[in-house]
Amino acid sequence: MSTDLGAVPAGPAGEPDADADADATAVPPTTGAPRRLAVATSAVAAVVWLLFVVVLTYGRLDVVHPETFGNFYDAQARALLDGRIAVDPDQVGFEGFRVGDRTHIYQGLVPALARVPVLAVTDRLDGRLTALSMSVGMAVALGHLVLLAVVARRLVRGDDPVGRAEVVAVAATVGALGASPLLFLSAKAWVYHEALLWGAALTIASLAHLLRWAERVRADDRAGSGPLAWSGLFAVLAVNSRFSTGLGALAALGLVGSVVLLGRWAARGRPEVAGRIARWSGIPVPVGAGRALGVLVATAVLALGSYAVVNHARFGTLFGLPIERQGVASSDPQFRAALAANGGSLFGLKYTPSVLTQLLRPDALGVRGEFPFVGFPSARPADLNDAVFAERDRSTSLPTSAPLVLGLAVVGLVAMARPRHWSRDGGAAAARLPVIGSTVSMAGIAVLGYIANRYQVDLLPGLAVAAVVGVAGLSRRWAGAPVARRALAGVAVAGALWGAWVNTGVALQYQREIAAGAWDGSRAAWLGLQTRLGPVPEVVRVPVTSPLPPAGPLGRVAVVGRCDAVYRSDSEIWLFLSGGAAAGSYRLRVRATGELTGPVPLLEGVGPEGSNRLVVEPHGPPGVAHLQVEVREGGTLRKAFPGPPFPWRPGSELDLRTEMDWRTDTVEIRDAADRRLLGAVVRQVPTGDVRPAGGPGVAVSGSARRAVGCSRLLGD
Question: What is the pLDDT of residue 429?
C-alpha cells in the first residue's frame, strides 16, 4: 500500500492470534469456515424475514392486502404516470400538503418510482403494494446486515479461523439487528413504516458497501472504486426515500471524501501526516484517489440535487417543508399547539432531553397478564421540560427492545477508539467514519417534537456498524478463552430471542389493540388467541342502552348486553372488536338500481336526540359516488369527510363490511377486497340498533354480524 498503516501485534496481547473457538482447536479449520459464517448469518436473516412477513400480513401471507395509510406511494406513482407530481387529495387526506390548488406528499420518490412499472399495466393493485414493498425492503436490510457482519469480521479478524461459537455469536447478532425495532415496523403496512424501512435498508446498504471498499483499499491500494460506487448509489436512493436517514450515509461518504482529499494532499509533501490520517481513519489513500473523489462528488450532487429538484417542484423550496400547510395542522389541535409553541416548527433542542430519556430508559416495557406477556409501557413518554410535542406515542427503548445491539454497539465504539488493541492491523478504525456519519440520522429524531416507537429505526444503521464490529472484537479478544467465547455465543442467542419476543409482542399489540385500522376480525381473533394461551383480560359489562364507560387500562374488554358488541381499550378510547346491529356492524349487499340524484341511506340509527345515517351520494359527474355520514341532532346536520370515489352504474353491486358505532363515534366501511371506502370519527347521537335502509336507485340487503368468542370472556 502507498501509506503505511502501522504494524500491530497479531493477537490481543501481542501474541499470535488463537483459534476463535475451542472446537476449532480440536478439529483443524477448513477453508469453508468463512462460507459457513455467511451461510449461518443468511439462514438467521431468512428466519427473521419470515417472522416479519407473517406479522405484517396478519399471518395470512398476503403481501398485496390494502391497509389504512398504505396508498400514498400508489397515489404518487399514479400522478407520475399522468405526468404530474401533485397527488389526488382524496387519496392522502390530512397528511397532504395543500400548496395553491395542488396537494403533495413529503415522502421521497423512490418507493413510488418502484411502483410505476406495476401500476402502468394494472390498476388492480392500487393501494395494495405497501406490504409487498416492505417485504422487499426488509430483505434488502437483512441481506446487507449479513454483508456488514461478514465485512466487519474480516476487517477486525482478517483471515483468522472461524469456530462454531463465533459463527453462533455473529449469526445471532445479525438476528438481533433484524429483530430490533426494525421488526416492529411489521405492525402496520403504512407509508410511515415503509419510508422508515426503506430509508434504513438503503442506508445500511450504503454503509456496508463503504466498508467493503475500505477493506479492499486496505488490502490493495490499487483496488477499484466499484464498492464505493455502489455505496454512493444506495446513498442517493436512501436520501430520496427518507431524507433524514439517508443523510447519514451521505455524511459518511462525505467524511471519507474529506479524508481521501486531505490524505492525497499530505502524501505529496508530508507523508508522515498522510500516514497518521490513514491510521486514524483506517483508509489509506488509494492509487486511484481521483476516481474515488469523482464518485463521491457525483454522489453528493445526485443525492442533494435530485432531492432539491423534487422538493422545489412540490413546495417551492430546496429543502424545507411548509409544515403549516399540511392537513393535520388544521385538523389536529395538539399538532397546532406544538407548532405555535415552537415558532412554526417541529424541531428544537427543547425536545432533546425527553427524546433521549425515552430512548435510553431501562424501564420502557410493560409486563402483561395476557399473551405474549410483554407490551408497551402503560404510561406515555414523559415531557421533562414542558416542551409541547405534536405526539408522544407509546414507545419502548433501546435497552428494552434491543439490549444486545446496544451493548455490542458500545463495545464496537471501544474497539474503534482503540483499534490496535481490538483488531488485526487496526482494521476496526475503518468503521469510524461510517459510524460518525450515521450520527446525522440519529440526531434528526433527537430534536423532533414527535416521539414514536418506529423512530428508533433511524438509529439502526449506525448501531449496526458498531455492533458487528463489537461482536468481532470480542471474538478476537477472547480467542484464547473457550468459556468466554461460548458465553458470548449464549448471550448473543439470548439477546436475539429477547429482541424477537419483545418487538414481535409490541408489534402485535400495536397492530391488534392500538393502531387505527385492522384486517376484518383480526382484533377479535387476537383476543381469542390471548384468552386461550393465558388468563382472560379484565371485562366490564355494559347494558345495551348505555354508553361505554371510560376506557381504563390498556387491554380492558367491554361486553355490551349479551354479546351484542365487544370492545377493547387502548387506555384512551374503546376500539370495536366484533358485534352486530348494536354497533352498526353488517355484511351489506348494495345494488345500484338507478342513477343517484342525491344522498340515499344505506344504514340508519334513530334515537331520541336525532339520527345517524350512512349514505351513498353522487360524486361529481354521473357514474361516480362516495360514502358519507350524516348526523342529525335537533335542527343541526353534521357530515363526515367523504370517502374516496368509486364507480356507480345501474346493475352494479357492492359487498360491504360496515361499522357505524355511536358508542365510539367511529365509522369504518370496507368492500369485499378490504379497500377502505370510508373511515371517519364523527360525533354521533345515541341510538338503538342501526338498521339497513335504502331508497331511490339503491337496494340494500344484508345481515348483522356477531360477536366472536364472547362466551369465553363471560365465563360461559
Answer: 96
- CA 432 vs CA 150, 463, 466: distances in Å: 17, 12, 9
Q: Could you give the C-alpha distances from 80 to 67, 87, 680, 681, in angstroms and in order? A: 22, 9, 29, 32
Cα–Cα distance measured from residue 96 to residue 90, given in angstroms and rounded to the nearest whole number: 9
Pairing of strands 450-451, 391-392: parallel
pLDDT, one tens digit per residue, over 588-632 is 999 999 999 899 999 999 999 999 999 999 998 889 999 999 999
Residue 33: predicted pLDDT: 56
Q: How far is CA 434 from CA 233, 442, 489, 519, 553, in A?
A: 16, 13, 26, 40, 43
Domains defined for the chain, CATH in brackets: 22-510 (no CATH), 522-579 (no CATH), 582-705 (2.60.120.560)
Give the distance between the most distant pair of CA atoms in the chain. 92
Instruction: Dig out the grid coordinates for 44 from the structure.
Output: 438467521
Instruction: Kindly write down the DSSP assignment for every residue of 505-567, as one continuous string.
Output: HHHHHIIIIISS---TTHHHHHHHHHHHHSPPPPEEEE-TTSPP----STT-EEEETTTTEEE
Of the chain, the end-to-end C-alpha distance in Å amounts to 78
Average pLDDT, the chain: 91
The answer, yes or no, to whether residue 8 has pLDDT greater than 60, is no
pLDDT of residue 716: 66
Q: What confidence tens digit (pLDDT) does each residue in 217-250 have?
A: 998 878 788 999 999 999 999 999 999 999 999 9
Per-residue pLDDT, 565: 94
Bridge partners (DSSP) of residue 104 are 97
User: Do residues 29 and 163 make contact, with C-beta atoms less than 8 angstroms apart?
Assistant: yes
Grid coordinates representing 444 are 434528526
Report whether pLDDT(289) > 90.
Answer: no
Instruction: Give just the sign of the alpha carbon dihedral 247, 116, 56, 675.
Output: positive
User: Residue 224 has what pLDDT?
Assistant: 83
Distance CA 712, CA 539 (A): 11
- Residues in a beta bridge with 559: 541, 566
C-alpha cell at position 628:
358519507
CA–CA–CA angle 532, 535, 539 (5° rounding): 105
| Amino acid found at 473 | G
Rounded distance between C-alpha atoms, residue 337 and residue 342, angstroms = 9
